[in-house]
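Might you be able to check the backbone structure tokens below? Thank you kindly.
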Amino acid sequence: MNARVRLPVHTDQHAPSYYAASANRRIDYPPLAGEELADVCIVGGGFSGLNTAIELAQRGLSVALLEARQIGWGASGRNGGQLIRGVGHGVEQFEPVIGAEGVRALKLMGLEAVEIVRQRVEQFAIDCDLTWGYCDLANRPRDLEGFAADKAELESLGYRHELRLVQPGEMRSVVGSDRYVGGLIDMGSGHLHPLNLALGEAAAAASLGVRLFEHSTVTRIDYGAEVKVHTAHGHVRAKTLVLGCNAYLNNLNPALGGKVLPAGSYVIATEPLSRELAHELLPQNMAVCDQRVALDYYRLSADHRLLFGGACHYSGRDPADIETYMRPKMLKVFPQLEHVRVDFQWGGMIGIGANRLPQIGRLADQPNVYFAQAYSGHGLNATHLAGKLLAEAISGQQCHGFDIFAKVPHMTFPGGRYLRSPLLALGMAWYRLKEAVGVV
């Protein structure tokens, strides 16, 4: 399948990505028809919904999950596949709200999140090309100084995986490019095939008794002590509702939707490379990411393609041709790929919050309605953490982690549904300009 032919964004089929072309299982769940009763109804069949469902089912609750299109259709099945420690950006900013211990807890949960993925893959024997090894790439000397501080902090938190600073003269051992001045290797982070992970987690949820329904767009929600969630051909009645739609919440709940900005992110995948060329590009088969505002992230697939992503767009408009947009960025890093063919190009929406901390909590006016969204580029691990925290809170367990996230306030983006993206695009353009002249 060649992604030069792009499917329209409204299609119910998976994006024409390398992931869809290399999915290792096909699953089909029926649309909702008639009435279903459940302890919990979950809206959204991505990592947030799937992992909340698994965690709830393991605690003995009955769950019905509604997905508007197909399992993993959104960011969960399209992302760069980078499994990186941490949640949020600069979590020290939240100390006035959650205290120093709360900040420390957020940092520890950012490490736990990756371990939840590791355990999920092992427990259910999910074949998703999970590979350990990641490197943060320094664009400037002061980035490398920051990595040294990151390393020291991780060690103070008891991080159990290997961390190693990479000096300028050693960078060719990590990446075959002269673009970087150092790095921080983290052997507790890595990369995987995200769609195969999502499909494996859906199968795991079903094995635990979760009822999954695809092609079941929610049209209306009746709130109350019992929620009633409507689709075109049926409804679910449940004691508790979880909204796990992230950037694809649309107008289902305007109050929540105003706190998350859908932003486009894009990936291209080359033809399979020779083992020699693949080794030249990424000698240790690590996932990597640079430190710029308009960051590059890339890695190798199991069949030796380079998957190169980035170019976060806040304008709400996709590039007319993703390959034409992304290929020059790839060649700046790897000019040796000038004559290599690009086989796949795709994009999707990630959810950005104003403070870049995942939004995990419950509605103030509807205490039986929970939500998780706005992972701001850390979704692969943070969604799995969110599922655990939501399940703890819903099942009545001690939920210290959930309470910490729920205490943090989240701003509604100004400008309403149609203006907030252009306004933020202007702000990000200004930030990139400052970066270009060395102000940030």
Remarks:
- The domain at 131-190+262-352 is CATH 3.30.9.10 (D-Amino Acid Oxidase; Chain A, domain 2).
